[in-house]
Structure formats: structure tokens, C-alpha cells
Amino acid sequence: MATTAKPARKPNAAFMKPLTPSPTLAAVIGSSPLPRTEVTKKIWEYIKKHDLQDPANRRNINADDKLRPLFGKEQVSMFELTKLVSGHLK
């Protein structure tokens, strides 16, 4: 009984398509078009670099001056993050 290797999984083209960030989002990640995956990665780099995770509940992100216009409030959960960011991509 021979086992057959699974073919390598192809990345979803929708995730790999470069999208242009809005001026609000560009203030955080830069203005060059990026795939959704890279946008999320860059936002998390920014959050960690500026220590914006809530110390009491690490799932929450505290907004600083650059993130406040993006979030529209003082604090968001990491689960809200992708929904909020997708509204700033074209």
C-alpha cells in the first residue's frame, strides 16, 4: 500500500492580491500596496513595537494616536482587528 503525497496547498489568490491602504492605514503600515497577509503582519509589528497590547488582557489592543482613527475607539479586541482593517483596503 503506497502512500501518495498531497500536492502542496496553493495560496488563495484573494489573499495574495496587493491592496492599497487608505491614508489612515498608510500612517501605520506605509502607503505601498500589500497583500492582506502582509498588512496584518505589519499592524502586529507596529502593535508589538509600541507595546499596545493591554497588559491585563493581551487579546485587547490599546489605540495610540495613529491607531485611534483606524479603530474609531480607544480599544479593540484582536478579533475585531481584521474587520476594521479590511475597511481601509482597496
TrEMBL record:
Gene3D superfamilies: SWIB/MDM2 domain
Domain DM2 residue range list: 14-90
Pfam families per the UniProt record, alphabetical: SWIB
PROSITE patterns: SWIB_MDM2
Signal peptide annotation: none
InterPro entries registered for this protein in UniProt: SWIB_domain, SWIB_MDM2_dom_sf, SWIB_MDM2_domain
SUPFAM superfamilies the record matches: SWIB/MDM2 domain (SSF47592)
Taxonomic superkingdom: Bacteria
PANTHER family: SWI/SNF-RELATED MATRIX-ASSOCIATED ACTIN-DEPENDENT REGULATOR OF CHROMATIN SUBFAMILY D (PTHR13844)
Protein name: SWIB/MDM2 domain-containing protein
Species in which this protein is naturally found: Eoetvoesiella caeni
